[in-house]
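Researcher: Quick test of sequence recovery. Tokens follow.
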């Protein structure tokens, strides 16, 4: 799961470039070619392409697809992608996309902006049951295109042994930035590194939300990077890094924050619910608790990561594809997926059933009510990759200059 959230910017840019080139040449997704909208007669044969987090997800989806096929008399061929963004880009460029596929929220606007996606969401039952923040992640120009299959949010993980070693108790769990600083200072005084923090917008961005800021406005049409709110957030994170209260993973000889946490190098980290499986598999002896992120000047804030069930605008089996997505997003099926490979259901109506099975995920589920999704605008890959580069140098850079550069680049991308 954690690998799915790591950006592969060069491949993503290639895929997006191929997609936009196809649209520009007129061979892709305009309305002049009606062949793609026709529904074939007889049983459908769907091609499903997805990015798998591992064998458990692949097996669970194959079994769910087989059950749907048996019930409906249709066929569904389920294929795990080696690199989903690259393979989708090639399929769209070749005018031969799969019928149904995973769409990462960070890719969604690129696909929607050129008409690659069928806007089917209004045909799914009880669509308002999906968390509002997740629906917003797949809304383009006011229209909800596809429904989220599941989601993750960020929370604060605490190593209970190191917490106790620093003389801290449950009453000391931080709920504000000031409290986070205070407990981190106490932890550092005991010779323990307080916090491992990822060095990209996918982690530091949570502080921007807590300060009342973000990169764009809600519908992704205006740049909002260079603001006092975002500056306050970056200055706060910079203060943590400069004072040794927070460390990036590379400073801890770790590939990601969860690894540093699992090796017992830090008392706290900020990660999503994918950390559960990683710790269970790689560091089973680590004892920890999970809490909502400390609130900033403007209140609670976290980031959400989600994927939707995309349907190709060119699919000749749209009715069957929609029926397939309907089956995959039923509450009971989402709960089955959760049990099989650790994702959180995107339907609010099953949240309590989920928490009854996984009570330790309360903080992650709570975050869905106030989470900020990825930037919802096309052509932003290189802009966001450049922002990440700036954040990786935050300790020695001017936060204001980083935000001014982000503002300028975002304006150029949105204007283009």
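Model:
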């Amino acid at each position: 799961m954690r690998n799915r959230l790591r950006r592969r910017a060069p491949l993503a840019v290639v895929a997006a470039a191929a997609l936009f080139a196809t649209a520009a040449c007129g061979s892709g997704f305009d309305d002049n070619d009606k062949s793609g909208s026709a529904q074939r007669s007889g049983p459908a044969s769907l091609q499903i392409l997805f990015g798998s987090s591992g064998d458990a997800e692949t097996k669970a989806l194959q079994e769910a697809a087989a059950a749907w096929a048996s019930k409906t008399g249709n066929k569904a061929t389920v294929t795990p992608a080696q690199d989903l963004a690259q393979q989708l880009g090639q399929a769209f460029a070749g005018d031969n996309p799969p019928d149904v596929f995973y769409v990462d929220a960070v890719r969604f606007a690129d696909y929607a902006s050129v008409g690659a996606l069928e806007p089917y969401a209004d045909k799914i039952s009880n669509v308002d049951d999906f968390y509002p923040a997740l629906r917003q992640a797949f809304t383009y120009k006011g229209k909800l295109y596809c429904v989220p299959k599941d989601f993750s949010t960020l929370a604060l993980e605490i190593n209970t042994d190191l917490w106790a070693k620093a003389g801290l108790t449950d009453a000391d769990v931080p709920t504000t930035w000031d409290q986070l600083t205070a407990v981190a200072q106490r932890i550092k005084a005991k010779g323990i590194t307080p916090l491992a923090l990822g060095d990209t917008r996918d982690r530091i961005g949570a502080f921007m939300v807590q300060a009342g800021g973000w990169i764009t406005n809600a519908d992704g049409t205006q740049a909002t990077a260079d603001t006092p709110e975002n500056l306050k957030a970056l200055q706060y994170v910079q203060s943590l890094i400069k004072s040794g209260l927070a460390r990036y993973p590379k400073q801890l000889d770790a590939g990601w924050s969860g690894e540093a946490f699992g090796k017992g190098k830090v008392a706290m980290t900020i990660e999503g619910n994918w950390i559960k499986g990683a710790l269970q598999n790689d560091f089973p002896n680590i004892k920890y608790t999970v809490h909502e992120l400390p609130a900033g000047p403007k209140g609670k804030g976290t980031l959400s990561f989600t994927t939707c069930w995309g349907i190709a605008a060119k699919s000749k089996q749209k009715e069957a594809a929609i029926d397939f997505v309907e089956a995959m997003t039923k509450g009971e099926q989402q709960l089955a997926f959760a049990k099989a490979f650790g994702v959180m259901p995107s339907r609010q109506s099953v949240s309590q059933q989920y928490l009854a099975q996984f009570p330790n995920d309360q903080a992650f589920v709570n975050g869905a009510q106030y989470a900020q999704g990825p930037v919802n605008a096309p052509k932003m890959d290189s802009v966001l990759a450049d922002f990440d580069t700036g954040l990786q140098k935050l300790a020695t850079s001017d936060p204001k200059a980083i935000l001014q550069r982000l503002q300028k680049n975002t304006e150029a991308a949105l204007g283009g």
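The chain has a mean pLDDT of 91.
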